[in-house]
């Protein structure tokens, strides 16, 4: 099972067992809400639906319950908070979906091991999965997917001393830009920016260490990881997010979506109706800024 969790990352080394999450949030939440770690105003979520699009709300009166399955090891999307409760972006999104569909009393969200998500869904232990699964042709043969609720970008980060006050890619002119060798982000970088001087590193940590030392003027990698790293204590203010969020279905996949059983078309339509409504009324963006205060776009 392909884990989109940002193209098979195992997510930040499980976010350094959540210590990185706590440290990053402590730093990020101490900043003004209108800025990212570099003092820039972070962009909101991209528009996910056409302004003219309409998705009818199906009749859910016959629905006995709606159980969303997730995990506890994917912060800030889903994790156990300091009070022992299941929390995160996905948890709040589920609550808003159920509120929009007016089925709060029928909704539940429960955690299972990542490896058991699909078998639990097929075994009627839940009706939907919201846990960062990748959308693949193989899974589309077995399940239905909602519309994407969060596209995943790649971003550039620059070393402040080497790029100065510039945040456009011209600041990298003839300067080395780090990538992790053999990754989809390296392939995407070379395809999108063939004139740029990319420097491959064996690991993400080696790449970031080189960036901090100034051995690379910038890096190109997963936008979510980089946004938290720039705002966190590990970066120590060395670096800044550069302009632009870059997307590619070929290299990065379609983004995050909710998965449910293939024969439950009414549920898929209902979830899409709710996502459209939450996108248009701003609630989806409010949840996003709550868990990604420095912005990833």
Please describe the topology of this protein.
Blueprint: H1 10-17, H2 19-29, E1 66-70, E2 73-74, E3 78-80, E4 86-87, H3 89-100, E5 107-111, H4 117-122, E6 128-129, H5 137-142, E7 143-145, E8 154-159, H6 160-163, E9 177-180, H7 184-192, E10 198-201, H8 204-213, E11 218-222, H9 223-231, E12 239-241, H10 249-252, E13 259-261, H11 265-281, H12 283-291
Parallel strand pairs: 1-5, 1-6, 9-10, 9-11
Antiparallel strand pairs: 2-3, 3-4, 6-13, 7-13, 8-11, 8-12
Q: What features would you highlight for this structure?
A:
D-Maltodextrin-Binding Protein, domain 2; 297 residues; 12 helices; alpha/beta; 13 strands
Q: How would you describe what is shown here?
A:
By secondary structure, the protein is of the alpha/beta class. The chain has two domains: 10-151 and 254-291, Periplasmic binding protein-like II (D-Maltodextrin-Binding Protein, domain 2); 154-251, D-Maltodextrin-Binding Protein, domain 2. The protein is 35% helix and 16% strand. It is built from twelve helices and 13 strands. The protein has helices spanning 10-17, 19-29, 89-100, 117-122, 137-142, 160-163, 184-192, 204-213, 223-231, 249-252, 265-281, 283-291; strands at 66-70, 73-74, 78-80, 86-87, 107-111, 128-129, 143-145, 154-159, 177-180, 198-201, 218-222, 239-241, 259-261. The strands form three sheets. The chain has a five-stranded mixed sheet. It has a five-stranded mixed sheet with strand order 10-9-11-8-12, with helices on both faces. Strand 2 and strand 3 form a beta hairpin. Helix 3 crosses helix 11 (265-281) and helix 3 (89-100) runs antiparallel to helix 12. The longest helix is centred in the last third of the chain and has 17 residues, at 265-281. The protein is elongated, with a radius of gyration of 20 Å. The two termini are 27 Å apart. The model is unreliable at 6-38 (pLDDT under 50).
């Amino acid at each position: 099972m392909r884990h989109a969790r940002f193209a098979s990352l195992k997510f930040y080394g499980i976010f350094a067992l959540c210590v990185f999450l706590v440290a990053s949030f402590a730093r990020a939440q101490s900043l003004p809400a209108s800025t990212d770690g570099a003092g820039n105003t972070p962009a909101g979520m991209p528009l996910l639906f056409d302004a003219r699009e309409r998705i009818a709300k199906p009749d859910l009166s016959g629905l006995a319950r709606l159980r969303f399955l997730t995990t506890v090891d994917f912060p800030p999307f889903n994790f156990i908070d300091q009070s022992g409760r299941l929390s995160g972006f996905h948890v709040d999104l589920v609550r808003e979906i159920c509120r929009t569909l007016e089925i709060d009393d029928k909704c539940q969200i429960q955690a299972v091991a990542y490896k058991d998500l699909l078998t639990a869904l097929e075994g009627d232990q839940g009706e939907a999965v919201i846990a960062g699964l990748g959308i693949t042709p193989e899974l589309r043969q077995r399940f239905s997917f909602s519309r994407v609720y969060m596209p995943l970008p790649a971003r550039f980060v620059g070393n402040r001393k080497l790029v100065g006050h510039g945040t456009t890619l011209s600041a990298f002119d003839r300067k080395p830009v780090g990538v992790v060798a053999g990754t989809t982000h390296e392939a995407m970088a070379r395809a999108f920016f063939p004139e740029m001087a990319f420097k491959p590193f064996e690991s993400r940590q080696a790449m970031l260490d080189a960036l901090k030392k100034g051995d690379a003027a910038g890096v190109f990698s997963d936008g979510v990881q980089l946004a938290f790293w720039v705002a966190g204590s590990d970066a120590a203010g060395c670096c800044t997010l550069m302009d632009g969020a870059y997307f590619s279905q070929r290299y990065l996949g379609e983004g995050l979506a909710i998965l449910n059983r293939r024969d439950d078309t009414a549920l898929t339509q209902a979830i899409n109706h709710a996502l459209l409504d939450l996108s248009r009324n701003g609630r989806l963006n409010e949840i996003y800024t709550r868990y990604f205060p420095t912005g990833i776009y």
